[in-house]
Amino acid sequence: MSDISEQRRIEAERARETAERGRQSVEQLRVLAEEFRTLHERHRSDAESIRDEQEALRRAAEDARRAAEEAREATIAATSATADALSTNLAQMQFLEDARRTMREIRSNSGRGES
Question: What pTM was estimated for this model as a whole?
Fold first, then answer.
């Protein structure tokens, strides 16, 4: 009976050792799963940050496009205003030149009429 008891004790010890190895394997898997979860969460967080940065860059590009369009429109308006001012100045200069000619003719004609 002692041999049977000893054999059962040995089998129980082997079963306990097998169970302990199984428990250790499960613990290692749990640790790996936790590390994977942590890495996955970090990756998800990094991906979200990248999406946020991309959205901010998209908004900045859209703002820059709008600003460029406004600057283009302002340049067109300024060019048009400059052209109008030059046209007005040219008309004034032509008017003054015509007035000088008229004055010269009047002076020239009045000088001849008196002689």
Answer: 0.52
Q: How far apart are the first and last CA of the chain?
A: 168
Is the predicted pLDDT of residue 114 greater than 60, yes or no? no
One DSSP character per residue, 16-56 reads: HHHHHHHHHHHHHHHHHHHHHHHHHHHHHHHHHHHHHHHHH
Span 33-57, pLDDT tens digits: 999 999 999 999 999 999 999 999 9
The answer to whether residue 113 scores a pLDDT higher than 80 is no
For CA atoms 44, 49, 54, 58, the dihedral sign is positive
Burial class (CB in 10 A: 0-12, 13-18, 19+), 19: exposed
Distance of alpha carbon 39 from alpha carbon 44, whole angstroms: 8
User: What CA–CA distance (Å, rounded) separates 95 from 113?
Assistant: 27
**φ/ψ (deg, to 5) at 113:** -70, -30
As given in the structure block, the two tokens for residue 46 are: 């990094």
